[in-house]
Design a protein that fits this description.
single chain; mainly alpha; 6 helices
Amino acid sequence: MAEKNIIYTKTFERIQQYKVDFAYSKNLFYSALNRLNQEEKDYLKYRKYIDVAISFFTLLSFSSAIYPKMDVLYLGVFAFLAFGLSIYQFINIKDFSRNIDYKTTADKYLSLHKTCKNLIIKAEDNIITLEELSKEIDSIQSIQDEIVRTSPTVKDEDYLKAKEQINNGNFEYTNEEIART
């Protein structure tokens, strides 16, 4: 008879809390990933403009072949500008290779979220025992500890964006589920 009441246990309540926690966590890291992808897109667009300017000034600095009477001072200024912009780009290189870390972390939280949803359904359908559910929670906690240990840092704006997405109903969580955490 105790198996039929699994959904009224603290263990079941805990798996429901995990589900919501992981919903926030996955949204947090997906929000961070979206922010970084937008930063990368903006950065690459900005670099293209500088590349065009470098090409333009380089072309102008070689224009003495076309316009032999052009003042050498102008040619030197154009060459200096092209060189300066090239140096500026070189010292301002940004590395976006860590974006994959954010996606990997978000995907791991998505997986844990789905695992919790499956366990909740199994408990509601009496397919899993309380002891099995407890073991699954221990396993989930272990996986979460590893994710937390290896996850990249996020900004406050990522937290706010993730919370806004959930509060605006972009996902399937009810206010009751969110209040349980």
